[in-house]
Amino acid sequence: MTTQRSSAIFVGDAVSLDFLNSIAVPVDTRVEWITSGKDLLDWLNTAGLVPAETCNTFLKSAVPGELDAVAAQARALREWFRGFVVAHKGSPLSQTAIEELGPLNGILGRDEEFGQIVAHHGSEPAHGHNGLALQMQRRWRSPDSLLIPIAKSMAHLIVEDNFTHIKACEGHDCTLLFIDRTRGHGRRWCRMAVCGNRHKATGHRARAKKENRAAG
Question: How many Å is the maximal CA-CA distance in the chain?
Fold first, then answer.
């Protein structure tokens, strides 16, 4: 059962894991953040994967039901990737994992990304020292293209990160996933202020109860 939603949660330290966390049990109750096409656009924009102007264009131009159908595809992709991550987390990936990646490569093969040279206004230009930079852009030809930046975030996790450090929060009933980027890789909780503190409180109550029984 779903409940009234809070803002989407971004604690995974990797966009693809945050996408998996777009349905979760962060505190006792299951929450789904992508129930519709508009939800998908909101999540993609908040995650920084799709520009706001592109989201607005799709909201205005999509035929009825089109965006909702893409949201359903996104949820299916999410659950496929969850199975992959859960099966492999805690150990380094090997080249044999490529045998499982057909669905992901299929989406990546539809990409229409291209580069454009633009003026760079930051203090450190990404390329060169003449105030110019190569910026990657994408042709958003149809709502289906909204799946591509999600797929790319998954691909980056697979090829750039160590699956040994992907963990599930140890909080009671919490389903949030994250990659542990701390120096000692000792992270245990999605958020210390939530699951970590709840664990401390539970331990404190258990100790107090034990002490009361001993005193009685």
Answer: 78
